[in-house]
Amino acid sequence: NKGKGYKELSYLMSSLRTPCPRPIIQTQKQILKAYGERNSMVPQLSGRLGNYLLPKMIDKFVDNFIGDEDVLLTFRENQIEVNTEALEEWIRTQDSNVVKQLMADDTYTVYEHKLNDYQYILKRLPKPSLDDNPQTVYSSPQAIAYQEKKINALFCPVVKEIKRRLLSVLRKDKIIYCDMTPETLEEIMNLRFPVKNYKQKVFRRVEIDFSKYDKSQSELALALEVEILIMLGFPVKLIPVWIHMHNISTLTNRDEGFKGKVQYQRKSGDAMTFLGNTVYLMISMATVLDVKEDFCLFSGDDSMVFTLKDRDLEDAMQYFASVFNLEAKLLEYKIPYFCSKFLLPSDLLGWILVPDVWKLMIKLGRSDLWDEEHAKEYRISLIDTTKSLGNELIYEDLDEAMIDRYKISSGLRYCYSAIYWLVRDENQYKKLY
């Protein structure tokens, strides 16, 4: 219907043919497909056992991850205050559209909103498939469920302080990868977990992939989250509100005439999305694997554990399912992989965080860039992402990682330098789109 208000979108076309998905056109059918295959088809793997083990799980979390329990005790007593200073600090980190939305909201208080009502939209660009035959599968679109900005304005500053408190009491061998650059993570790892120690003691790597991680989080996830929030000083008066928001939720897309309900499940546009996912993963790892003596990295549903223990990991995968309702798959590769990047242990350079070149090349074939200005912004981000590819000393280790993970017949070192210089040569980059 090219009537009033219709605007036909046009995109730049990439000169590379890669399996990078095309932008999603939001329709009612696409919304139903996303809801039906992602929100409705949730694994039901666990029983009620997890609820009885909840106190033990909290104790395990503290024992495995908290380095200063005395400070932790003070957090519970000193609850976070919701004040204008914290709100103003949060607003400064948002773009101008957020401020406009807050100004346009004429409600007196957040309680005038339906706190368990979430707007449900599709992500414009799905994640690229790294399989051998991506053309044979039509994956369901990924969706975002988010609340009104005034609700976020209340809870986001509180969650930000919760995160700061948690980071301040973590053990030194446990790292949550957030609010830091890749270079900062490299520095921390080289200081706390030198490559020399890693290679001399022959650490075993535990990399686990969780299927439908957000949607699989059930009543247990919410109960654990509430306990951790109270422990870190979340305002107790807001706890009933928080439970109401995350128990039975309504997902609505008014443009496409859609409304559906879900129980529990992690929402991708919630104030607690990243931290909640991270903490739930940490609790499950502490309960199932007991990682107190291990060096661990966490970020959302990504983790990497370096351990000297000899564990029965096959049984552990079953434990994740039966207690935490998580469908877990153990990945066994030679080179550590974390947050879509390789962690290369270099004898000369220490730990180096390098982008997954396979995924990077696929994304270069994207077809969702609006215009030359948008392509220019993407180039700026690529320059930062590919910084480590300028060092030829890592190419041998990176080749080993690529061959091991993707089973390619030979290395791609000619691609590493080509990509590095391509994004730094403006004229050559323009030929891409």
UniProtKB/TrEMBL annotation:
Key word Protein transport present: no
Origin organism lineage: Eukaryota, Metazoa, Ecdysozoa, Arthropoda, Hexapoda
Organism: Triatoma infestans (Assassin bug)
GO molecular function ontology, one term from the record: RNA binding
PROSITE patterns tied to this protein: RDRP_SSRNA_POS (PS50507)
Domain RdRp catalytic positions: 203-315
One Pfam family hit: RdRP_2
Keyword Transcription regulation: no
GO-annotated biological processes: DNA biosynthetic process; DNA-templated transcription; viral RNA genome replication
Keyword terms of this UniProt record: Nucleotidyltransferase, Transferase
Protein name in UniProt: RNA replicase
